[in-house]
Records
---
Amino acid sequence: MRVLIATDAWRPQVNGVVRTLTSLARAAATLGVEIEFLTPDGFPSMGVPTYPGLRMALPNRREIARRIEKAAPDAIHIATEGPIGWSARGYCRRRKLAFTTSYTTRFPEYISVRTGLPTAVGYAVLRYFHNAGAMTMVATNSLKQELAARGFSKLGFWTRGVDTELFRPDEPAQLDLPRPIFMTVGRVAVEKNLEAFLSLDLPGSMVVVGDGPQRAELERRFPRAKFLGEKTGRDLTSHVAAADVFVFPSLTDTFGVVQLEALACGTPVAAFPVTGPLDVIADHPIGALDTDLRSACLRALSMSRDTCRSFALERSWENSARQFIGNLTALHPSRSLRPARAVAARSPVRG
């Protein structure tokens, strides 16, 4: 089976969507399923401000068609609602091809935080986008219920996993900081609600791993916190393993793969009781959820690191890939697309 995934989020971005898609592709390959990506690579960029590392593509209809037809996929999945996603959606609609989508980012809330645009407007646009597909995959039951209440139809599950070989509790970084260490990892941007964490009166040290447009402002406002910049691979893993508590202050993430990554490192999670943490942590003894984030942070200190690791070991990317592929197979989506003759001889497909 060959699957083409259209995504606006792609390397060099370092975020949950990119990690999810690349991990999915690796796991799917072990199951005999080939995944290719239609990404912003090769398209001109829009002249608009973006996050560091984020490039919004300016795709054209002809090239989108060429890339999709060159891939000749058995199934088409649209992972994001940006220019690439809309272009792939338009291609499928014009040709009456079934496609699936996934809802991974709360763009209405993100846009509202930055512009003041009512979230109802954003949800109306996203409802129009997703309801044209054969299925919209979501990672949690609470998100499914929320979107259903907002008029999204044909919702299905696609859970997330964690690479437990990369994210491990052994060989933690040697951080010369007062204990306990409360750490958060991710994009340093207003929608991540980092101020809610950094303004807490906590003992020990507060650490931020990551980069983004709000870093300079937060470093100036919260001089007590240590900002270590972006880290990847084993460097990232060792830092997460060195923390005593992983703090996830976001109110807008739909899942938060970083929670599973922290748990795989044996680090308990403290978060608000919202979609994502409610589904991952729930009532398991691997973290603490509270509207009082300080209380959650302090309670998480008593959680067993071995229990956190054991919980993560049960949530593999292979299981996630099986569920994703099962959704596509059950829907019998597009098969054997024909290359367009006029453009079939051009450059290769891979994003």
---
Amino acid sequence: MENKNLLTMKQPALGKRISELRKQKGLTQEELVEKCNINVRTIQRIEAGETIPRSFTIKTILQALDADINVDNIINEIEISNNDRKVLNLAWIFGIIYFVFGVIETIADVYHITQNEMIFGITSYACIKVISAITFVLFFMGFIKLAKKYSSKLLEVIVYVFMITYVFSELYDIFLISSSNETIIVTSIVELMSIVELIIFGTIQIIFGLSLLQLKTKFDSLIKVNGILEIITGICVATVVLSSIGLFFLIPTIIIEVVVLYKFAKS
């Protein structure tokens, strides 16, 4: 196989070919690390087919190996394993469930804020919040898989932050609704916390969108649309005053997220 075809190979074939090229040069993994200044664990994982390197990483390794290639034609095609495919399939399915419960939850929250009364009982409301939290985590596990497949540390970290923050937010809402304290001081604190919550979620969503825009995949256009929608939604939410517009943008944003995971699961 010619070296120029190395850039279109999928794992684990890519890792095996890099290993062959390294051995042909008479280099150990440690010696290759010295030449390309890449972590030895990264080299080990690439050669073992455990991770998909970024285009820049492939370029650096191949240059260190003096491989005769056209580095401007790097294509990062990724083979989705059967196990990852199962996770992605479950993720988009839970994404649909999350979307349904998210709509119900939002209606209940808005009604409670505007009318100062509950549509559902406390137990039913708490169950909706818990289901929403669980389905959100399972939904976004799909993006964790994508982050690992495309070696995007930023995406992986921000998704974990997103999941943890969302779960704590849902638990906090359950705590508030279960509390009977309605004093002026408590109400002011709740309003302040709501503003802080919007700013935090908006910021997380902006970073999430930016991390998606950095991914180089075969569904580039779809990922870019998703990333842009995330950023627009995040900006609206973070400004607080435009949070209602953010809720409007959140609908197509979640739908695109589901479509993204569906496309990768079926690819």
---
Amino acid sequence: MAAAEGGHLPVMLSEVLDALAIRPEGIYVDCTFGRGGHSRAILERLGAEGRLLAIDRDLEAVAAAGASGLPGDARFAIEHGRFSEIGRIVGERGWTGRVDGILMDLGVSSPQLDDARRGFSFLRAGPLDMRMDPSQKTSAAEWLAEVSERELTRVLREYGEERFAGRIARAVAEERQRRPIATTTDLVRLIEAAIPFADKFKHPATRTFQAIRIAVNDELGELQQGLNEAVEALAAGGRLVVISFHSLEDRIVKRFMRDEARGKEMSGGIFASRSTPRLAVRGKPLKANEDEVRGNPRARSAMLRVAEKRAP
């Protein structure tokens, strides 16, 4: 496994490299650079003519790439961007329909979780921020100050699968009448007071923090758009490799790959048909092995799925 960068270990590294089926002269896109563990390993398998483009919506990740020395490698480039911008970013290089492999490693990176200033972790006291891209306008604290109680209940229930969504949303609505909910500690205390009992296997704030983070960053919308654009970017035979970390993400990836492998159903009443399938699912979904989970507990929930672009 590649060495940790800033405390971050690339998840399922050997499985990712196998799934991408890297060709030395190929073109590859790492959509979530993080601290570069996957990117470095991909570069090690590329020849002089190979190319790797890394993308990350977190400006700190882009800065970390600059400090790492990777931009000195002529085969490597990195851009600040989101999943929904993959098509544009690839197109500007003239790579649309030419990419041999695309990796999406979803979720929050270890450096983001471990930095209290980012506000992702309920275990660390800090500002309630949660923006993956700190240049975007709305932080979690600002979102909580404006969201309706009804919408917050929906978000907590759908994105966090939180059984006490209504209680927590009501507590937020009442608390913000008195004072702003500005820090991670403010929100954790409110959640702990709002729920009648906690899951002994999970911190009581786990689901709420996940749900708010997903909403603030529009993670599911970005994923759906990114998957669509990734297929357009791939060459025939190119691989799409996605690592998800919770059931909401994995469900979107699973359904997307399944539907693209079957062909999308097209309207037409009794004459309804399906579009030409664009993908073929490759292998069964994979989970991190026991050795990796022991060394990197955050890999425990990882699920890797692979699909290959069909020839037109």
